[in-house]
Amino acid sequence: MLPKRVDFSGARVLLAEDNDINAEIACDIIGRTRAEVTWAHDGAEAVKAVLEVPEGWFDIVFMDVEMPNMDGLEASRVLHETCEREGRARPVIVAMTANAYVEDRTRAFEAGMDDYVVKPFGFADLCDVMDAHVPARTVSST
Questions:
Q1: SS3 of the chain: helix, strand, coil, percent, to 5
Q2: Which of 42, 48, 63, 111 is most buried, by the most CB atoms less than 10 A from its CB?
Q3: How far apart are CA 37 and CA 44, in angstroms?
Q4: pLDDT tens-digit profile of 62-77?
Q5: How confident is the model at residue 2 (pLDDT cuts 50, 70, 90)?
Q6: Residue 94 phi, psi (nearest 5)
Q7: pLDDT reading at 44 higher than 60
Q8: Distance (Å, rounded) from C-alpha 24 to C-alpha 19?
Q9: SS3 assignment, position 39
Q10: Backbone phi, psi, residue 117, to 5°
């Protein structure tokens, strides 16, 4: 069954994924939604990417949980703390992991993540998550 919405033109997505093959697949799936995708290779790079752009730039961050340098859980915590301290809104953060145990979901939510997808995920899974968190945009024809 196809999700309700599959066109996310104008949305900006940050993908935090250290594995090149997984990132290539995820970028392809995200690209099929017509959203603009930026790739960060680890959690530290993801934090930097979010904080270097204007508030509200990224609509959603798909954050791998297990990455080198800074894992997704720590990156989520840092983003929460920094955005709160600076008084800026943070993007929605979605955990991506192959671990589907209740404890893994609990850890992700405790780190401040807003949603959770299990790898490997497909187009419909991704669209459902984006539909839940990315506002619809009105595209001007001018």
A1: 40, 20, 40
A2: 63
A3: 17
A4: 999 999 999 999 999 9
A5: low
A6: -115, 120
A7: yes
A8: 9
A9: strand
A10: -125, 145
